[in-house]
């Protein structure tokens, strides 16, 4: 949460405090928490919101249901699940049917008779084949295990995106609440200035103070009115940021209101004490980014085993069945009167040597070639094949070795990324605790300062009304009080958010 406080000076003396509620994300958002994606409103058409005030829990739930980044992560999970399904299906044998039809013109070799011919031939080839990997260095099994780990890691990424979005919504929600507080505070200053000007005019008419005192009061009023405008602008920006995170259309929600929760002051609680190491140990078992990092370490290990599987021989069992048809395939046929030929032979009767010759009629048929029928050809040309293929890698340009080395390096990188994720989580917890503790102490000090400056400002007002204090000096006391109040508000909301972050790391809801 960043509140930029600019002191307007006159003659080297602080006269006014310009309160500008800047973006809270830089100070309130936990580090290294970042939005899982750009705000959903920047990626899709915003949707209209339901009526009624918005509490923190409702805002978080609505953002989780409508954020584009979360939904994209969910689609990634579905995509990885399909990859896993495909890797499991790779254990099954493959089976395919093929069919071709071709026309050959001019001189060609008959695919069935293997004779040269010069004619137009139509041919069909049909085949079916199946293949089963019997052994492949356990690569199929390791692929399944690796893809299953990738699915689990992507599921953890979804939860990480949801957590980041929840933290950003909580930050934007508290930013909007603080902006409203700053608007009310600055409006109170304006009202107080107006009352002071009315009293100053009466004192001026009575001759108790010079005219310069009235001018100083009017200058202070103008400064505080500018502060109100700046605070209202920052409140509008804070409201817009929250609406964009919720993917709500600002034009369709002109009456968007926040349900301000009951936020106790930091001094109403005991001094914050926390064992950050114990909190880290518990958070490391719950936070999805740690789970995702560990799963990717295991996945990288499977990738190494997968690459090493290329060293092993590969044994494949294959089978096929095939047949074909050619329009040039001819078969001889005989019979019928159209091809019959009568021939008479005169032979000697063996029982009567030297006797007369006896005529013998013989009918022969002229051979005739006809195209063989389609289904007859498919039946006669049918062939089957069973084949075992053994592939033993010996030397392939060191491709296998270099691939294994790359996977080993990648595994080391993933291991370091997992360690970095744990380090980042530890640092985020330590930073959140340090900020929360500092904010609680700052709030206590600011509260004491506000009490002291309130008394000082009252005394100064009495002296000013009696003409014992100049307008410049009186405005200094008011601005000091305004500055202390702004510091008090800033410390309060910083402490509230950091405490919520620590509770979130402890497994509790942000809305609690």
How would you describe this structure to a colleague?
By secondary structure, the protein is an alpha+beta fold. It folds into 2 domains: 3-321 and 391-505, Outer membrane efflux proteins (OEP); 337-367, no CATH class. The chain has helices spanning 25-28, 56-66, 68-89, 139-205, 211-245, 276-286, 288-308, 374-380, 399-465, 471-505; strands at 3-10, 13-21, 94-104, 107-109, 116-118, 121-135, 314-326, 330-333, 340-348, 357-365, 368-371, 383-391. The longest helix has 67 residues, at 139-205. The radius of gyration is 45 Å and the shape is elongated. Mean pLDDT is 82; it is low at 1-44.
In short:
By secondary structure, the protein is α+β, with helices and mostly antiparallel strands. Helix content is 55%, strand content 19%.
Structural class: alpha+beta
Assign an overall shape: elongated
How would you spell out the order of helices and strands?
Answer: EEHHHEEEEHHHHEEEEEHEHH
**Whole-number average pLDDT?**
82
Count the helices. How many?
10
Q: The CATH topology of the largest domain, please?
A: Outer membrane efflux proteins (OEP)
User: Which blocks of ≥5 consecutive residues have pLDDT under 50?
Assistant: 1-44
Superfamily at the CATH H level of the largest domain?
Outer membrane efflux proteins (OEP)
Share in β-strands: 15-25%
Please indicate the count of domains.
2
Q: Rg, please? A: 45 Å
Helix content: 40-55%
CATH architect. name of the largest domain: Up-down Bundle
Topology:
Layout: E1 3-10, E2 13-21, H1 25-28, H2 56-66, H3 68-89, E3 94-104, E4 107-109, E5 116-118, E6 121-135, H4 139-205, H5 211-245, H6 276-286, H7 288-308, E7 314-326, E8 330-333, E9 340-348, E10 357-365, E11 368-371, H8 374-380, E12 383-391, H9 399-465, H10 471-505
Antiparallel strand pairs: 1-2, 3-6, 4-5, 6-7, 7-12, 8-11, 9-10
Helix pairs in contact: 2-4, 3-4, 4-5, 4-7, 4-10, 6-9, 7-9, 9-10
Family: Belongs to the outer membrane factor (OMF) (TC 1.B.17) family.
Subcellular location: Cell outer membrane
Pfam family, one: OEP
